[in-house]
């Protein structure tokens, strides 16, 4: 709140987020560029079989216990809404 | 893998490497102060500078005028181990072995390092504190090769935390399980306004046990200027944090105090720093 008002403060939230992200790549020994490549190839394959849901795909890296895992949420088939 | 060691934060390791990955975060100052404080606690201590080519532990400790032989002289057989051990005159049980200033890091050798540390143990030293060079290359690897425990020094800022994460991974790959974190140069007023990583943030990210929080304090630099480790001066509050680290290394269970001169009160400061409700 004060960060918005005074233009300073709370930069620690931002640095914490950035650190977590960069460390997840460091620990997985993966570069963000490689991850993007992998993601687009992966999504290309999924999209070939289930076209139309690409915009809902979500792929990320996260720490689970003592290792990094890639978590993918890939809806197959079109959305049921509307 | 990041196993959380059970039990307290005691460091049972006899040979402890002080490391950080990133340079300039306070490794040498920490080595000098924790080494001196452990000696004041009655332990027979030798601090070992392995930053070959860029030696500094001797000046930080104020012993630069007494260096005759160094670690590489020992490695290469130009002197006996005992000739390279400088005894501190302020604390009887405190000793230094300097790094060579003329060689480069290729003069370091893991086998020689391990042999030398073993000889120091056989000489009756309770603790061998090894000041590692910055970086993750051979100098660091050699320093770590003779250690059973590690003090990782980190500043609460992005590049230091990232490098510390890398170093912790490398220490664990070496089988060093007793890894303890010292958060150095914390600025309580910046934490208070949300512009600095809090202690809890750093611990959450790095997943190792905390053994000390040292606030940024001009008095540390002044002591270093004088060549007298702050922890040797009972009247020096900043040095007190290093004395606490030494006590925790020895198994004492002490609260983490933050020196806070802004009048906000110690406990308010503690709550803030730990992100308490």
Q: Please, could you describe this protein's structure?
A:
The complex is a heterodimer of chains A (82) and B (277). By secondary structure, chain A is α+β, with helices and mostly antiparallel strands. Chain A has one domain. Helix content of chain A is 50%, strand content 17%. Chain A has a two-stranded antiparallel ribbon with strand order 1-2. In chain A, a hairpin with a 2-residue loop joins β1 and β2. The N and C termini of chain A lie far apart (38 Å). Chain B has one domain: Rossmann fold (3-Layer(aba) Sandwich), CATH 3.40.50. Chain B has 12 helices and 8 strands. The N terminus of chain B is likely disordered. Chains A and B meet through α2 of A and α7 of B.
Brief description of this entry?
By secondary structure, chain A is an alpha+beta fold. Chain A has helices at residues 2-6, 11-28, 32-49, and strands at 58-64, 67-73.
Question: Gap between N and C termini of chain B, in Å?
Answer: 31 Å
- Shape field of chain B: globular
By CATH, the topology of chain B is: Rossmann fold
Radius of gyration of chain B from CA coordinates: 18 Å
Which structural class fits the helix and strand makeup of chain B?
A: alpha/beta
Structural class by sheet pairing and helices of chain A: alpha+beta
pLDDT averaged residue by residue of chain A: 79
What percentage of residues of chain B falls in helices of 4 or more residues?
A: 25-40%
> What fraction of the residues of chain A are assigned to beta strands by DSSP?
15-25%
Please give the CATH architecture of chain B.
3-Layer(aba) Sandwich
Question: Largest beta sheet of chain A: what is the strand line-up?
Answer: 1-2
Report the uncertain regions of chain B. Answer: 1-5, 259-269
Q: What's the shape of chain A?
A: elongated
Based on CA atoms alone, the radius of gyration of chain A comes out at 17 Å
Topology order of chain B in helix (H) and strand (E) letters: EHEHHHEEHEHEHEHHEHHH
Regarding quaternary structure, what we see is: heterodimer
How widely separated are the two ends of chain A? 38 Å
Approximate helicity band of chain A: 40-55%
Tally of individual helices of chain B: 12
